């Protein structure tokens, strides 16, 4: 019986194909129909808004295309959140969950967790938001061989401001620009943040670094030194430059702060060192450039008195333009970088809340 079966199989294998179908034997395409439900990941909002120090939920839910259930039950669901870098060249791990296992990464540790309001809810809650949290996040859900993703942008309420150091215009490479912003209670701005600032009226002729490594500047009032009178208003792009060798200014971004910004009432004007000590004596620190811009833009702070700041510059914030105090526009007025040992001014202080 076994021998007979073997001969039958050999006969089938050696059988000549029908002449009319010989050309089809090598071109036959086999379609495999998957009967299982296809995994879908959906973000109910493409953008969410918050501010430094706040909490936010990045929405993400997963479904199967042909069922109303969250999962098939055959495989464990794995949820992974990553942050996309501004140049999209890599992803930064934020949070991973599978079953009862949870893990957060980097400066997200202790600040992120899943909302899990339902069995198909993969939304991420971020607490105590910091400036570096701004950006685009990817929610990836994996079940067995199936996976899908969704992207959510986290925007922060804040202000973009141009910055150059005491050395003057165009003296920062990209890495120095990043540190300069951090030193002034801010981070280097993204293109989206600069673009939104331009739409709100920011006009600045000096080119500055952005977080993606490009160099750009915003123009609302075309004029000769800034591309010419016939230039179309917009954010002008110098392109991407060598981060180590090329030198420009920088655009920084800051948000609200957990503290009090104020002008210190003092009986006399002060040198820079005296200003630093006066703030310390008052239980505070000399304020940073990012803090004066945040107080001006977000709190409407208005003061006509020029005062020292931590970087050695002297500035004052005007929210209500008036004679002798920025009559034409609301702005943080820049006096300059005076001689620290001999010039006398007031001082702006910042006292952090515990």
TrEMBL record:
The residue ranges of the Ig-like domain are: 37-155
Residue ranges of the Link domain?
159-254, 259-351
Q: Which UniProt keywords apply?
A: Disulfide bond, Extracellular matrix, Glycoprotein, Hyaluronic acid, Immunoglobulin domain, Repeat, Secreted, Signal
- Would the keyword Signal turn up in this protein's UniProt record? yes
Secretion signal, residue range per the UniProt entry: 1-15
Q: Which GO terms describe its molecular function?
A: hyaluronic acid binding
Cross-referenced InterPro entries: C-type_lectin-like/link_sf, CTDL_fold, Hyaluronan_bind_Proteoglycan, Ig-like_dom, Ig-like_dom_sf, Ig-like_fold, Ig_sub, Ig_V-set
Q: Which cysteines are joined by disulfide bonds?
A: 205-226, 304-325
Q: Which GO terms describe its cellular component?
A: extracellular space; perineuronal net; synapse
UniProt record, GO biological process: cell adhesion; central nervous system development; glial cell differentiation; positive regulation of neuroblast proliferation; skeletal system development
Protein name from the UniProt record = Hyaluronan and proteoglycan link protein 1
Q: Which family does it belong to?
A: Belongs to the HAPLN family.
Q: What compartments host this protein?
A: Secreted, Extracellular space, Extracellular matrix
Coiled-coil parts of chain: none
User: In UniProt terms, what function does this protein have?
Assistant: Stabilizes the aggregates of proteoglycan monomers with hyaluronic acid in the extracellular cartilage matrix.
Q: Name one Pfam family in it.
A: Xlink
């Amino acid at each position: 019986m076994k021998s007979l079966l073997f001969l039958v199989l050999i006969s089938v294998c050696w059988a000549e194909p029908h002449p009319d179908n010989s050309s089809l034997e090598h071109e036959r395409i086999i379609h495999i129909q998957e009967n299982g439900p296809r995994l879908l990941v959906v973000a109910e909002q493409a953008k969410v808004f918050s501010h430094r120090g706040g909490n936010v939920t990045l929405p993400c839910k997963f479904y199967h295309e042909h069922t109303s259930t969250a999962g098939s039950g055959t495989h464990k669901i794995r949820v992974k959140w990553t942050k996309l870098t501004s140049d999209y060249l890599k992803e930064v791990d934020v949070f991973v969950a599978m079953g009862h296992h949870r893990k957060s990464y980097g400066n997200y540790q202790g600040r992120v967790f899943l909302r899990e309001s339902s069995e198909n809810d993969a939304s991420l809650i971020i607490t105590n938001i910091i400036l570096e949290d701004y950006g685009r996040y990817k929610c990836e859900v994996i079940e067995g061989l199936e996976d899908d993703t969704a992207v959510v942008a986290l925007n922060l309420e804040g202000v973009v401001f141009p910055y150059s150091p005491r050395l003057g215009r165009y003296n920062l490479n990209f890495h120095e620009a990043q540190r300069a912003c951090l030193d002034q209670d801010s981070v280097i701005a993204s293109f989206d943040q600069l673009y939104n600032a331009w739409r709100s009226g920011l006009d600045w002729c000096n080119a500055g670094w952005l977080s993606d490594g490009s160099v750009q500047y915003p123009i609302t009032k075309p004029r000769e030194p800034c591309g010419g009178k016939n230039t179309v208003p917009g954010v002008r792009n110098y392109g991407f430059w060598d981060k180590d060798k090329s030198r420009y200014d920088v655009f920084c971004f800051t948000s609200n702060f957990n503290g009090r910004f104020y002008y210190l009432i003092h009986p006399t004007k002060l040198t820079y060192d005296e200003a630093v000590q006066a703030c310390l004596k008052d239980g505070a620190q000399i304020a940073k450039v990012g803090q004066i811009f945040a107080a001006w833009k977000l709190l409407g702070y208005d003061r006509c008195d020029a005062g020292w700041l931590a970087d050695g510059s002297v500035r004052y914030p005007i929210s209500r333009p008036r004679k002798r105090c920025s009559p034409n526009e609301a702005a943080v007025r820049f006096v300059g970088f005076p001689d620290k040992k001999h010039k006398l001014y007031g001082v702006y202080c910042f006292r952090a809340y515990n």
